[in-house]
Specification:
Elements lengths: L2 E8 L3 H15 L3 E8 L2 H10 L7 E5 L13 H11 L4 E6 L4 H11 L3 E4 L5 H12 L4 E2 L1 H12 L6 H11 L15 H14 L7 H10 L4
Parallel strand pairs: 1-2, 1-3, 3-4, 4-5, 5-6
Helix pairs in contact: 1-5, 2-3, 7-9
Protein backbone atom coordinates (compact mmCIF):
# COMPACT_ATOMS: atom_id res chain seq x y z
CA UNK A 1 0.00 0.00 0.00
CA UNK A 2 1.35 3.41 -0.98
CA UNK A 3 2.11 6.03 1.63
CA UNK A 4 0.25 9.32 1.44
CA UNK A 5 2.13 12.50 0.54
CA UNK A 6 0.22 15.74 1.07
CA UNK A 7 1.75 18.78 -0.62
CA UNK A 8 0.76 22.45 -0.63
CA UNK A 9 2.06 24.31 -3.70
CA UNK A 10 1.96 28.11 -3.51
CA UNK A 11 3.00 30.28 -6.46
CA UNK A 12 1.20 33.03 -8.35
CA UNK A 13 2.25 31.71 -11.78
CA UNK A 14 -0.09 28.84 -12.81
CA UNK A 15 2.17 27.55 -15.60
CA UNK A 16 5.20 27.40 -13.30
CA UNK A 17 3.32 25.68 -10.50
CA UNK A 18 1.88 23.14 -12.95
CA UNK A 19 5.44 22.32 -13.98
CA UNK A 20 6.44 21.77 -10.35
CA UNK A 21 3.40 19.56 -9.80
CA UNK A 22 4.06 17.44 -12.89
CA UNK A 23 7.72 16.92 -11.95
CA UNK A 24 6.82 15.79 -8.43
CA UNK A 25 3.91 13.55 -9.43
CA UNK A 26 5.99 11.92 -12.17
CA UNK A 27 8.81 11.15 -9.75
CA UNK A 28 6.79 10.02 -6.72
CA UNK A 29 3.68 8.38 -8.23
CA UNK A 30 5.01 4.82 -7.77
CA UNK A 31 6.00 5.40 -4.15
CA UNK A 32 3.27 7.72 -2.85
CA UNK A 33 -0.41 8.43 -3.12
CA UNK A 34 0.02 12.13 -3.82
CA UNK A 35 -2.48 14.78 -2.83
CA UNK A 36 -1.72 18.34 -3.91
CA UNK A 37 -3.42 21.62 -3.11
CA UNK A 38 -2.52 24.59 -5.32
CA UNK A 39 -2.76 28.22 -4.18
CA UNK A 40 -1.95 31.28 -6.27
CA UNK A 41 -2.18 33.94 -3.54
CA UNK A 42 -2.06 34.41 0.22
CA UNK A 43 -5.84 34.12 0.69
CA UNK A 44 -6.01 30.71 -0.99
CA UNK A 45 -2.94 29.45 0.87
CA UNK A 46 -4.33 30.49 4.26
CA UNK A 47 -7.66 28.87 3.41
CA UNK A 48 -6.01 25.54 2.55
CA UNK A 49 -3.84 25.60 5.69
CA UNK A 50 -6.84 26.32 7.94
CA UNK A 51 -9.01 23.73 6.21
CA UNK A 52 -6.75 20.81 7.04
CA UNK A 53 -7.25 19.79 10.65
CA UNK A 54 -6.95 16.01 10.86
CA UNK A 55 -4.58 15.45 7.94
CA UNK A 56 -1.62 17.79 8.15
CA UNK A 57 0.49 18.67 5.15
CA UNK A 58 3.76 16.81 4.79
CA UNK A 59 5.46 19.56 2.85
CA UNK A 60 4.82 23.03 1.47
CA UNK A 61 6.55 24.53 -1.57
CA UNK A 62 6.05 28.28 -1.17
CA UNK A 63 7.10 31.17 -3.39
CA UNK A 64 8.07 34.35 -1.54
CA UNK A 65 6.43 36.77 -4.01
CA UNK A 66 2.65 36.45 -3.67
CA UNK A 67 -0.39 38.73 -3.92
CA UNK A 68 -1.24 39.80 -0.34
CA UNK A 69 -4.26 38.59 1.60
CA UNK A 70 -7.43 40.66 1.34
CA UNK A 71 -7.26 41.55 5.05
CA UNK A 72 -3.69 42.84 4.70
CA UNK A 73 -2.35 40.50 7.39
CA UNK A 74 -0.30 38.23 5.12
CA UNK A 75 1.80 39.94 2.48
CA UNK A 76 4.25 37.36 1.18
CA UNK A 77 5.23 33.72 1.06
CA UNK A 78 7.36 34.42 4.11
CA UNK A 79 4.16 35.12 6.08
CA UNK A 80 2.51 32.00 4.63
CA UNK A 81 5.48 29.82 5.59
CA UNK A 82 5.37 31.10 9.18
CA UNK A 83 1.59 30.54 9.29
CA UNK A 84 2.02 27.00 7.98
CA UNK A 85 4.71 26.16 10.54
CA UNK A 86 2.43 27.45 13.30
CA UNK A 87 -0.65 25.47 12.23
CA UNK A 88 1.12 22.40 10.81
CA UNK A 89 4.23 22.11 13.01
CA UNK A 90 5.26 18.76 11.52
CA UNK A 91 5.13 20.02 7.94
CA UNK A 92 8.36 20.75 6.10
CA UNK A 93 8.72 24.02 4.18
CA UNK A 94 10.68 24.65 1.00
CA UNK A 95 10.99 28.32 0.04
CA UNK A 96 11.24 29.53 -3.55
CA UNK A 97 12.43 33.02 -4.38
CA UNK A 98 13.72 35.17 -7.21
CA UNK A 99 15.70 37.22 -4.67
CA UNK A 100 19.41 36.56 -4.48
CA UNK A 101 20.44 39.62 -2.43
CA UNK A 102 22.24 38.49 0.70
CA UNK A 103 20.22 40.73 3.03
CA UNK A 104 16.92 39.33 1.73
CA UNK A 105 18.09 35.72 1.94
CA UNK A 106 19.39 36.31 5.46
CA UNK A 107 16.03 37.75 6.53
CA UNK A 108 14.12 34.75 5.15
CA UNK A 109 16.52 32.29 6.79
CA UNK A 110 16.26 34.08 10.11
CA UNK A 111 12.46 34.40 10.19
CA UNK A 112 11.31 31.22 8.43
CA UNK A 113 14.22 28.78 8.90
CA UNK A 114 12.94 26.59 6.04
CA UNK A 115 13.97 22.98 5.53
CA UNK A 116 14.58 23.77 1.86
CA UNK A 117 15.55 27.00 0.11
CA UNK A 118 15.73 27.34 -3.67
CA UNK A 119 16.54 30.27 -5.95
CA UNK A 120 14.32 30.16 -9.02
CA UNK A 121 17.13 31.14 -11.38
CA UNK A 122 19.00 28.00 -10.25
CA UNK A 123 16.03 25.67 -10.30
CA UNK A 124 15.55 22.65 -12.56
CA UNK A 125 13.01 19.84 -12.20
CA UNK A 126 15.79 17.47 -11.11
CA UNK A 127 16.93 19.86 -8.36
CA UNK A 128 13.33 20.31 -7.20
CA UNK A 129 12.97 16.53 -6.84
CA UNK A 130 16.34 16.32 -5.08
CA UNK A 131 15.27 19.02 -2.62
CA UNK A 132 12.04 17.12 -1.88
CA UNK A 133 13.92 13.86 -1.36
CA UNK A 134 16.35 15.45 1.10
CA UNK A 135 13.65 17.28 3.04
CA UNK A 136 11.37 14.23 3.24
CA UNK A 137 14.32 12.32 4.74
CA UNK A 138 14.56 14.90 7.51
CA UNK A 139 17.53 16.72 6.00
CA UNK A 140 17.86 20.27 4.71
CA UNK A 141 18.48 21.30 1.13
CA UNK A 142 19.71 24.76 0.15
CA UNK A 143 20.58 25.64 -3.44
CA UNK A 144 24.11 26.63 -4.44
CA UNK A 145 23.31 30.37 -4.37
CA UNK A 146 21.92 30.11 -0.83
CA UNK A 147 24.96 28.12 0.30
CA UNK A 148 27.28 30.79 -1.10
CA UNK A 149 25.39 33.35 0.97
CA UNK A 150 25.64 31.20 4.09
CA UNK A 151 29.38 30.75 3.67
CA UNK A 152 29.82 34.51 3.39
CA UNK A 153 27.80 35.07 6.54
CA UNK A 154 29.70 32.40 8.49
CA UNK A 155 33.02 33.97 7.52
CA UNK A 156 31.80 37.33 8.76
CA UNK A 157 32.16 38.35 12.38
CA UNK A 158 29.76 41.23 11.71
CA UNK A 159 26.08 40.79 12.58
CA UNK A 160 23.70 43.49 11.40
CA UNK A 161 20.09 43.99 12.41
CA UNK A 162 17.20 44.35 9.97
CA UNK A 163 17.29 48.17 9.90
CA UNK A 164 21.00 48.29 9.09
CA UNK A 165 20.54 45.71 6.34
CA UNK A 166 17.70 47.78 4.89
CA UNK A 167 19.85 50.92 4.93
CA UNK A 168 22.65 49.13 3.07
CA UNK A 169 20.23 47.64 0.57
CA UNK A 170 18.55 50.94 -0.31
CA UNK A 171 21.87 52.79 -0.48
CA UNK A 172 23.07 50.15 -2.95
CA UNK A 173 19.95 50.85 -5.04
CA UNK A 174 20.86 54.51 -5.32
CA UNK A 175 18.57 55.94 -2.64
CA UNK A 176 20.09 59.07 -1.10
CA UNK A 177 20.52 59.32 2.64
CA UNK A 178 17.98 62.15 2.92
CA UNK A 179 15.36 59.90 1.27
CA UNK A 180 16.07 56.72 3.24
CA UNK A 181 13.31 57.59 5.69
CA UNK A 182 10.82 56.85 2.89
CA UNK A 183 12.04 53.24 2.85
CA UNK A 184 13.21 52.62 6.43
CA UNK A 185 10.99 53.59 9.35
CA UNK A 186 13.57 55.80 11.06
CA UNK A 187 14.25 59.50 11.47
CA UNK A 188 17.05 61.08 9.45
CA UNK A 189 19.18 61.54 12.57
CA UNK A 190 18.75 57.85 13.48
CA UNK A 191 19.72 56.86 9.94
CA UNK A 192 22.83 59.07 10.10
CA UNK A 193 23.86 57.43 13.39
CA UNK A 194 23.41 53.98 11.89
CA UNK A 195 25.47 54.94 8.84
CA UNK A 196 28.25 56.14 11.14
CA UNK A 197 28.09 52.81 12.98
CA UNK A 198 28.19 50.86 9.70
CA UNK A 199 31.26 52.75 8.54
CA UNK A 200 32.97 52.00 11.85
CA UNK A 201 32.07 48.31 11.58
CA UNK A 202 33.42 48.07 8.03
CA UNK A 203 36.38 50.36 8.78
CA UNK A 204 35.40 52.92 6.14
CA UNK A 205 37.15 56.29 6.45
CA UNK A 206 35.59 57.97 3.42
CA UNK A 207 32.48 60.13 3.72
CA UNK A 208 31.37 58.71 0.38
CA UNK A 209 28.84 55.86 0.52
CA UNK A 210 30.41 53.96 -2.39
CA UNK A 211 33.14 52.41 -0.25
CA UNK A 212 30.60 51.39 2.38
CA UNK A 213 28.39 49.75 -0.25
CA UNK A 214 31.36 48.05 -1.87
CA UNK A 215 32.62 46.59 1.41
CA UNK A 216 29.13 45.46 2.45
CA UNK A 217 28.67 43.78 -0.93
CA UNK A 218 32.08 42.09 -0.71
CA UNK A 219 31.15 40.66 2.69
CA UNK A 220 27.79 39.38 1.45
CA UNK A 221 25.44 41.81 3.17
CA UNK A 222 24.08 43.18 -0.11
Amino acid sequence: MKKELRILLVDDHPIIIEGYKNALVSHYKKEYEIETDVAHNCDDAISFIKRRHDTSYDIGLIDINLPPSSDGVHNSGEDIAQFMKKHHPNAKVIILTMHDESSRLHHILEHVNPEGFLIKSDLSSSELVLAFEQVLQGKTYYSSAVNVHLRKMVLNDVRLDKKNLQILYHLSRGVRTKNLGDHVNLSLSAIEKRKTYLKEVFDIKSADDEQLIGEARKRGFI
